[in-house]
Predict the structure.
Amino acid sequence: MEQTTYQEEYDFSLELVKKCGEVIKRAFNVEKKISEKSSANDLVTETDQLVEKMLIDGLKEKFPDTRFIGEESVAGGEKCELTSAKTWIIDPIDGTTNFISSNPHICTILGFMVDKEVEFGIVYNPVLDQLWTARKGLGAFYNGKKIQVSTCTELSKSLLIQEMYDSSEVKLAMVFKNLQTFIPKVRGLRAYGSAGINLAYLAMGAVDAYFDCGFHIWDYAAPLLIVTEAGGVAMDITGGKVDYLAR
């Protein structure tokens, strides 16, 4: 099968993600040096930057013919360009605001794409020792155990994720409108503050549905494979195929 050709990339990158997890754990309960990026709720810490550098340096040394799209690299001015080449998609700490507050709902997200399709995805929460993985065509796993999405098919019985933050008045108005629409129709709402954690919980059936707008490719490309390999369905807001570079 085609996906077995990326065994070396998968094995090496998984161990590298775990090694970066040790750095994150050591920094989790200490004071962080924080900087703003695009807004007051778009934050970065030294640990975000260090972990992304560790990932890129390690992967580049082992696989020099691959490309990279990393959250902090793009924030630093690099172009976010997805080609057909082998490409690593990196979010060093998804849920940085949680991380700053020592809230454990955080994760490192790493995806490997070829021909603009995700071949495997890794979501790792080192604080709670939670590891979600998927390889195209081989299913999805949580700490080594195969997982599947919820079997719930009734909105009235569903647990829905909707995040509730943004500095944009337009986005806030949309969030409030969605809350007004869905609160009377669902069993409950949750928000974990990390797209990677949200999608991982969706993949393992801990929640039943999740929607959001404004994602970056590093937020969801890898965890979305985990959802679909667990039997879930993903689409854009028009019901069409997901475009990883659309927001």
Summary: The first strand starts at residue 34 and ends at 39.
